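I am still learning, so would you mind making up any protein sequence you like and the C-alpha cells describing how it folds?
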Amino acid sequence: MITKRTVLLVFLIFLVFPFLMGISRRPAVEPVTGISIDNLQTPPTSKFVGFDFSSGKPKDLRPQSYRKVRKVSADSEDKGMSPAYFVIFLAFLPLAVWFGIMKKIRQDEISAIPNAVDFKAYQERRQKVAAEAQADEKEKSKISKAS
C-alpha cells in the first residue's frame, strides 16, 4: 500500500537528486591545450642582452616623479594619533566596561531595596503556616477515628 509519506519521499528524492549532481566536485585543473614545445624557436642572441652587474652604481628605475627629493621640516610632521594611544585604549577598555556594569548593578541594588523581602519574617510565617497545617491534619485524623 502506497502512503502519502512514501509518495512525498520519492518526490523529494527526485527533486533533490539533480541538485546533488550539480554540486559534485569538478577537476582541479581544467583540461586546456597548451603550447607545444616540440617546435620551440630560440630568439637570436643579438636581440637580447643580459644585465651588466659589473657597473658600480645601479640605475634608478623609479619614475621621474618619485626621484624628486621632498623637503620635510620638523613642523610638517604628522601629528596623528600614536599607536601607543590605541594600545592604552585597548588596555583600559575592559576596565571601563567593568566599572560601567558595576555602576549599573549598584544602581539596580539601591532601587531594589524597597522591594526586598525580610527573609526571617518570611521563614517565620512559613513555619507558622506549616504548623497550622499539621494541626489541621491531626484534628482531621482525630475526627475520622472518632466517627
